[in-house]
User: Fold this.
Amino acid sequence: MKHITVMLALVALRVCGENISDGYCVDGKCFVVHEHRASFDDAQSVCQEKGGHLMTVRTEKTASVLGGLLNGTSGDFWIGLKHQCSDSNDGLKGYKWVNGDNTTQFINWKTHLSVCSPRCASVSHEVLKWSERACNDRIQGYLCEYDNPGYCPPLSINASVSYQTHFGFSAQEDLKEIPQFSNATLQPLRTRHMCVEGAWYQAPWSCEALGGGCEYKCIQEGQINTCICPPGFTIDINNRVTCNKHDDPCTHAGCEHTCTRRGETFECKCPPGLYLGADGKSCTSCNPGFHMEGGVCVDVDECSSAPCEHECINTEGSYHCECFKGHIKSVENMHKCNMHCTEFPCPAKCDSNSNQCDCPRGFLLEEPFCIDIDECDSDFCDHKCENTVGGFQCSCDEGYVIKDGTKCITENFEGSGSSTTFEEFIPTSRSPTDMTVSISAASLLGIMVCIFLCILLLACLARSIMRRLSKMHHYDMDEGHHEILNFQEVIINKHCVQQTFPNRYLKRDI
Assistant:
């Protein structure tokens, strides 16, 4: 009831804003600009009717506010200084502030001449100096000053807010002291709020005060105040005060708390501290991995749905998968497990019931072991290949980079890397009664040994033939030499003449 009474007082205190252009609040005071022609006394009367007086400018801070308020105005405006024809050494030249307090820390006279006559002070946007003029002049406007007790802090610093003060001026986020009884509209939900005694209250409030803040009409049932809409419209469930047409998607969205329209769709939102549920409509205060049960957040046992191929370990708010001995987590899917060798030679895993044997990826079954396949023999890589246990790794020469794991391209090609490791998938199981389609490693080794022996035998045979041919050649040369010597001896005996023979024949006799 106390708040209702205060709000009713608001209605009586509202200032008609038809001639109010701007206002600002600071240090517990609010200053309002009235653009309405009036004499000094008439202007002071309007300010007093609303509980204030003409503006006093007694500090540098207030002077800076004055300059901001007059920005964009034209003409002269009354401030609260009036000559009293009394001696004064305080710099006011015999003037006094209309509130009766003659203390001042700021003086800004346009001229320092003193004249004892019924004169008052005015300022303008062009000349902020205090100008003296006849008090009965009807100038462009005046500035009122009001006390601002019970003001509220800004409604929000993260969202857009517009304020409508009971002094009659509007303001945006730059207002830091929101006068009591001001209305605020918070975006994007367009919720409405009122400042009362330093605290914000959300509409609908008492229907007796500003229609409860409702856009159309407020009805009261007991202590409950409710906003209603005209036919063809429904109340906005986001703010409970504005009306939407029936085609608003939020009308039938089913959001547990608030709904925000996104074009032709909607988005459910939860209050601070709550999380949107998996259905996109309900709200829960539990962190991910927990669910509400009996008002308490309880850990969800993800392992109950058997997400892991081998073993599932439930943890607080989550879970993780483990593999049985002789297996390792798959790189492609952490929920799956692959066979893995921990000793070498790697024994095959055989099922005694089905006589079926299996090997890890990259291994070939050669019972009772699994033999690592040297994929580098298959020329998978363009340049360099390094065989690894169960796979292989490609790399490129300088100036090239890896593409698609095995190809080497020049470095200026996009999307490249230096090397890539593969785990080749090779069929690694067969039944002992099945015919082996491929040649085993031992058979390949036997064939290679036979080929090597054949090549060695051919080489020995070729060498033997070459040596035989070489001996025959030397024999022919020796026979020819003997015939020449015999012929020479006959000539010498016949003619009895000493002759000289080439050294190569003489050396033969030695």
